Amino acid sequence: MTEPEDPSRDRLKHHFAQRVIHQARQILEVWQRLQQSEWSLADLEELIEANQRLLRFAERFDQVEHAHLARDISQSLFEVQANRGRLSSALITDLNRLMQRLSRTGLRHGDKLEHTSLPPLRKPVYVMLQDHERAERLAKQLEFFGLSAQSLDSVEAFNASLSERLPAAIVMDVDFGGNGAGLQLAARMQEGLEQKLPLLFFSHQETDTPTRLAAVRAGGEEFLTGTLDASSLLEKIEILTRVAQYEPYKVLVIDDSRAQATHTERLLNNAGIVTRTLFDPIKTMSELAEFQPDLIILDMYMPGCTGTELAKVIRHNDRYVSVPIIYLSAEDDLDKQLDAMSEGGDDFLTKPIKPRHLITTVRNRAARARNLKARMVRDSLTGLYNHTHILQLLEDCSFRARRECKPLSFAMLDIDHFKKVNDTHGHPMGDRVIKSLALFLKQRLRKTDYIGRYGGEEFAVVMPDTDLKAAYGVLDEIRRRFAEIHYPAQPADLFCTFSAGVVELGEYDDALMMASHADEALYRAKKAGRNQVYTVSDDFMQTRKHSPVDVD
Q1: What is the 3-state secondary structure (H, E, C) of 16-49?
Q2: In terms of DSSP bridges, do strands 250-254 and 274-278 run parallel, antiparallel, or are they unpaired?
Q3: What angle do CA 245, 83, 56 make, to 5 degrees?
Q4: Per residue in 341-386, pLDDT tens?
Q5: 6: pLDDT confidence band, cut at 50, 70 and 90?
Q6: Rounded to an integer, what distance in angstroms lies between the CA atom of residue 517 and that of residue 544?
Q7: How many angstroms separate the Cα of 354 from the Cα of each of 27, 146, 263?
Q8: 447-474 pLDDT per residue, tens
Q9: Distance (Å, rounded) from C-alpha 209 to C-alpha 470?
Q10: Contact 47, 78 (CB under 8 A)
Q11: How far apart are CA 187 and CA 196, in angstroms?
């Protein structure tokens, strides 16, 4: 006879897991901060100490996966120490990979590691509106998206909750507790805090500049007016509260001088920037396709071709039109520098250059380039990848999956009866449902998965290192949970569902074939009654026969 489970033991285990995850977050915050400056031995020691605390907690509280990650991080940091505190591109890549795995142990609701999945550290989001019933409804909706939300109906309740635990974020009506009282309450709350709490202000009416200025001074990072809905609010909260996954900038240095290229590489590596050097400019295009850098540093004078000629060649390819090119040369003739920049360059740095000048220029240019690229490849309504880019990512992932002999799955999702939603409740409601599903997918899928808006109410998901069975299980769980979300409407609340088709990379498949097969499976799910996930099987694809029929 098996012994009954002890609830108090489970609660204790949950508490220990949260302690470990809290320490993991401390490491991630240190790691993220280090990416903004050049590393020093003191920074390295801080990271080592934080990681040692994680290892002690993980071993003490029997958190196996965290202990394993802490040991791997310790090994990489030992290699940095052995290299006299210097980073290399390989070490940066290894550490970032480990940090990303560490972030997935508790930072997002649906993420799982290979062996275990620990409960996330669920600091609450405080929701404080003049309309308390509305605040309660909003808090319940946020719970559907994996957040812990708590509505508070008075200043006294807020102060009592604040004394017990600091929240992940606060959503506050500017008039909470009286006309303009929310602004004053927030300002008092932030006093004396070493790290300001993420604060989002709300007002029913459009406000004047003095009110918004007061919100900024009170620590407000967002200001919303009009109607609050859970999906748009979640998007703001997620931006304010997440420990962002830092992806190191990647720089390709093209220089025929090994000494200069090595010097540049060392400076950038020690600032946490992944660098690859190329001494033969003729190999540039193949290196760009393989490395996909955020920025290119280019010598002006090289045997075989000049820097300006190579810049023109790079710009001929549409995929690299927006990649910044910085010339780094001893050329000090201003006219020649300006001519070079007019030939596809974005900046000109003269040797010798101060390390801080080089690092700051590279970071600023790379950051703007990433922001620009994000605008080019993302859908404006949802923030997901657009149709063209999700297919490009599917192609890249299928190439990588074949090379590494790993599985890859691809899914297409479609909101059921979406035309009826628009016709009955209007297009603004339709947009809310689309944004809601987009956010739900981001919450429930791994950070290593790619999510795109394929068009209209249709979505696409690329799932690397995932076989068909696992992909089906994840998407079917998302489907069931998404159906529980309700949208306030008249005469009754609206509920929505979606159908999905999933396919795994086959021996002879390319990206377009995978997309076609997933679309076939989606069609089958629709025809079978909607609100279900269908997978592609060989016999299904061979025997599929149908006449084209519009299916909403």
Answers
A1: HHHHHHHHHHHHHHHHHHHCCCCCCHHHHHHHHH
A2: parallel
A3: 55
A4: 887 888 888 888 888 899 999 999 998 888 788 778 888 788 889 9
A5: low
A6: 11
A7: 30, 47, 12
A8: 789 999 998 999 999 999 999 999 999 9
A9: 51
A10: no
A11: 10
Structure tokens at 269: 């590596």
The answer to whether 89 and 274 are in contact (CB under 8 A) is yes
By the 8 A CB rule, do 411 and 500 touch? yes
Q: What is the 8-class DSSP label of residue 397?
A: H
Q: What span, in angstroms and rounded, lies between the C-alpha atoms of 501 and 483? A: 17
The greatest distance separating any two alpha carbons of the chain, rounded to the nearest whole angstrom, comes to: 88
Give Cα separations from 309 to 233, 290, 348, 542 (angstroms).
49, 21, 15, 51
Three-point CA angle 526, 532, 538, nearest 5°: 75
Across 29-42, b (16+ Cβ under 10 Å) vs e yields ebbeebbeebbeee
pLDDT, tens digit (0-9, with 9 covering 90-100), for 68-99: 999 999 999 988 888 877 788 888 888 888 88
Q: What angle do CA 478, 431, 476 make, to 5 degrees?
A: 10
Question: What HEC string does 483-509 produce?
Answer: CCCEECCCCCCEECCEEEEEEECCCCC
CB-based burial of residue 530 (10 Å sphere; 0-12 exposed, 13-18 middle, 19+ buried)? Answer: middle
- Give the amino acid at 505: L
- In three-state secondary structure terms, 224 is strand
Give the DSSP letter string of 155-177.
Answer: HHHHHHHHHH---SEEEEETTTT
Query: Cis ω on the peptide bond leading into residue 491 (within 30° of 0)?
Result: yes
91-116: string of b/e by CB count within 10 Å (b at 16+)? bbebbbebbebbbbbbbbebbebeee
Are 397 and 450 in contact by the 8 Å Cβ rule? The answer is yes
Query: DSSP states of 399-422 as a string?
Result: HHHHHHT--EEEEEEEETTHHHHH
Are 315 and 348 in contact, with CB atoms under 8 Å apart?
no
